[in-house]
Amino acid sequence: MSEDGGAVRSGASPLRRLARVAFLLLALGFGAWVVLGQWDDIRAGFARLSVLSLVLSLLAVLAALCGGMMTWRALLADLGSPLPLRAGARVFFVGQLGKYIPGSLWPVIAQMEMGRELGVPRSRSAAAFFLTLPVQLGSGLVVSGVTLLAARPGAAAPYAWAFLLIPVLAVAFEPRVVNAVLGFGLRKLRREPLERPLTRRGMFTALGWALGGWIAYGLHLAAIVHDLGPSGFSAVLFSVGAFALSWCLGIMTFVVPAGAGVREVAMVAVLAPVLDQGSAIAAALCSRIVIILGDLVCAGLAGLAARRATASNKDHASGKAV
User: Fold this and answer.
1) Are the C-beta atoms of residues 45 and 283 closer than 8 Å to each other?
2) Residue 35: predicted pLDDT
3) Which residue, among 131, 121, 108, 110, has the nearest Cα to 191 in the 3D structure?
4) HSE-up (13 A, CA, CB side) for residue 58
């Protein structure tokens, strides 16, 4: 929605939307073809996964998703809209379900509308959303580069081109640059400037939460890889780097919902030095399933917690009135 109450327009023409759907169907078709071609190895890989590994993987995903929420919440607070933990979790996690819908704007539209109900200006919600992406992308590239080099020095070489973005994103972490870009964008959109500029403290806080999130995501993948291939500290380091790099490659592809397919293909390629193809595909698919489950669990729990808090506040208010 716009500041005057009008609807937000996605800016995507019918032809572009059709192209996105066609791309998604094509990607799913090729993905299904690859999966069917390796089905025996994939089924054998899934059979090797223990219940304990899957539970540990899900717990790590929940921690990683909370890290992402805290990254966004830190940026939003630094911009002038600190939200209580329960309310912030509901806005973030429920809004994030929009990433599974084709189109890149559904999550930010959902967060803008839910945030508005809590007194957060739409422009501030949008700024926090779009700032979260480069923070996670930049920190993810740094984490993947360091951990892959530490675990297997040659594993990162084929993806050296992606790490060229690190210096660019490092400049974007400077609040003065970010504030100037945000101010320019808001002027072009004929919106009021942000009342409170981003600070270094807010940016470093967000980066700290993002780094914690990457470690948790790596542990999520390590729990799966442990049953399919190598184990030990080196394998954990490699898993952190493999997940972070595949996520970054997926987020660079905005035409696909939540990086669907791209992240899995990248993960299979990055895991090639430690797993056979069938096991790597099983690990990538299992990771995707656990993350989807984690998104649903976080959204459900956050919504339930926020509803209970609202009901408790109403009961408290009615008790005072009596």
Assistant:
1) yes
2) 56
3) 121
4) 14
The pLDDT tens digits for 174-199 are 888 888 887 787 777 777 777 788 89
What is the C-alpha to C-alpha distance for residues 141 and 272, in angstroms, rounded to an integer?
19
Nearest-Å Rg of the Cα atoms of the chain is 21
Task: Please answer whether residues 41 and 278 qualify as being in contact, where contact means their C-beta atoms are separated by less than 8 angstroms.
Answer: yes
**Residue 105 above 70 pLDDT?**
yes
Whether 252 shows a pLDDT value over 80: the answer reads no
Distance of alpha carbon 121 from alpha carbon 173, whole angstroms = 23
Check if the beta carbon of residue 58 is closer than 8 Å to that of residue 219.
no
**In terms of DSSP H, where are the helices of the chain?**
14-37, 39-47, 51-78, 85-96, 106-116, 122-151, 160-163, 165-172, 175-188, 200-228, 233-251, 262-270, 277-321
Residue 56, token pair as written in the block: 């540990």
Would you state the structure tokens that stand for residue 59, as one six-digit string?
Answer: 């717990």
What's the confidence (pLDDT) of residue 12? 47
Judged by phi (left if over 0) then psi (alpha if -120 to 50, else beta), residue 73 lies in alpha
For 236, the domain range is 56-307
Domain count of the chain?
1
For the stretch 125-171, pLDDT in tens is 888 888 888 899 889 999 999 999 888 888 877 888 888 888 877 87
Per the domain annotation, does 190 fall within a domain?
yes
pTM score, whole prediction? 0.77
How many other C-beta atoms can be found within 10 angstroms of the C-beta atom of residue 211?
Answer: 18
- Token pair listed for 162: 């992606």
User: Is 49 inside a domain boundary?
Assistant: no
Count other C-beta atoms under 10 Å from residue 63's C-beta: 17
